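Anyone able to model this chain together with magnesium ion?
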Amino acid sequence: DLFYFFPRRYEDRTRMTSIPELKVGEWYTISGKVLTKGAHRSWFTKKHIYEIILDDGKGRIYCVWFNQSYLENYFTTGTQVVLYGKVEMYKNRIQMVAPEYEIIESNEASSLNIGRIVPIYSLTKGITQRYLRKTIRVCLDRYRNELADILPVSLRNKYRLSNIKRSLENIHFPESLTMQENALRRISFEEFFLFQLSVIMRRVSITRKRGIAHQVNETLIKRFAGAFPFQLTRAQTKVMGEIAYDMQKPSPMLRLLQGDVGSGKTLVALWGCVVAYDNDCQSAFMAPTEILARQHFENIEQILSQSSLKDMRVALLVSGLKPTQKEILMTQLKAGDIDLLIGTHALLNEQVQFKKLSFVVVDEQHKFGVRQRSLLSTKGTNPDVLIMTATPIPRTLCLTLYGDLDCSIIDELPQGRGSVQTRLFREEQSSEGYALVKDKVKQGEQAYIVYPIIEESEKLDLKAAQKMFKHFKKHEFKDFHLGIVHGQMPRKDADEIMRRFKNKEIDILLATTVLEVGVDVPNANVMVVEHAERFGLSQLHQLRGRIGRGERGGLCILITEPNTPEAHARIKAIMSSTDGFRIAQEDLNIRGPGEFFGRHQHGLNELRFANPITQIDILELARKEAIAFVEQDPHLEKGQNVILKQVIQKRYPKYLAMVEAG
Ligand code: ADP
Ligand code: MG
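re: yes, here you go
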């Protein structure tokens, strides 16, 4: 564990900058003797202030710490210290505020702590840099030679990666920063390689199984395409082709479908269901919320009823069903009297049994875990699986997160779509924004007003939707029909409100982010987002994707007071583009990968050292090699590969457990 407890940064202490050379605004490591020290309390802020003057023989600088009274006994005059911090100007003097500090003993001319590139670790109470460096040094000296290299020699030679002993030495006590970079590269390669091995073994364990080879004939495609009042887009047709190709093969499909909000993923998924139906098989379609499941159900029913596919039997399974209804449904399903079952994660329930399930759709994948998606598959004999997401994922992350899936992309919107004008209003100008909403609603359109939270919270000081609902009814929108939906209201009530909104009985709908995923009301072409700075970038993009249908073009009004640099960056990004992939990339840049996907996502959290964003080149090489290894030896049971497997089992048990469980 110590070996793999990596420094969080390094300091080059071979050449310290002398105090007269320091520039304001830059970060430096300096070294010198404590000349004077003293503490006082600010009469104004009551803060404890501790100051020293450091003298390096060439110049002097003030160093200040606030509220760290224990420092009073830490330094004594004459002590040799190393400081790291930012140089600032304060009342005509240069100073370092709260620099990191380290005492150097007088006999330490050259040691672990001085005269070299020095590792700086994250510390915890009671442990100092010096102590940790020394301990790691001793352990490296004593045990380094017992480390076994798990990265196969062939790969080490091919990519000129140093052995593990040397690499760890250069991670902790690098001879040069280049050596440190090379060492990190090697460690990252190993990590990517092992992780990709686990992902690819998982994939192969599924795709090597025998699934159902569907028949797809020409007339079916024509019948399907003819079922809509519009032309399928080129991108939709292309992806349908990819799905048809996979479904004809006996090995199970594992495919990720990415497409921006409103790009028409649902139809593409329905195509797979129709293929299954035509082959006398069943499909399951899982959506993350009840509102969405119901919406898919209603849309699909409507489409089918007007087409030559009206014999296809579709049912909806949500948790609110009466026991008798549910029982009937389960019996029909098992008897094969239902061709397509749409629902929420209620589908995962063990009572749900199909006669012959051959196609599975998981909508808005990021709302489900890997386990859930594989659980649904176990309800058939190796069905074809289509996973859909409206959060476009930059390629590099796609390999990390979904390295076990093939990728399809719908990269175009249906004609006349996506023309949304986005306008920005400050809090105090919100009535101007509301006036625009009134105009649009008077012309027969409908509007959303979206809020970040529901109950008023003192801490956040946001005007909650409920309070504004009452306010709007009396003032701004008293001449219109208003409705409100939020996550805390009973599902029945929420569904009822959505139904009335779809029927145009409600003009303006106040809502919390339940709208974010997939709600589809074409006549609602105006959206106000209150406190837009509180929303994530992808969330804003998803929300905005709800509008902009039809010829008229949508209007998105952001009411916001961006109060942090990140919030500014988000608002700027959403104002400047409507392209989901560009926005996703921007979001990733602003937030970093961990935040981007949320904590529950696998893959990113599994990686300790490697970074799929900055090390994409290494990731691709490691992935290529992992594929080659698994092709040669699918269960990693030959020769040295056994060791690889053992390590993976220990490190990524979730993945291998799934391989073994199938
Ligand atoms: P998403 O990709 O967000 O799931 P949907 O599949 O829900 O998008 O499609 C959004 C809307 O666009 C639906 O009302 C659907 O009927 C319609 N639609 C889908 N494909 C086309 C097309 N090729 N031309 C016109 N409208 C389409
Ligand atoms: Mg959708």
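The first strand starts at residue 9 and ends at 12.
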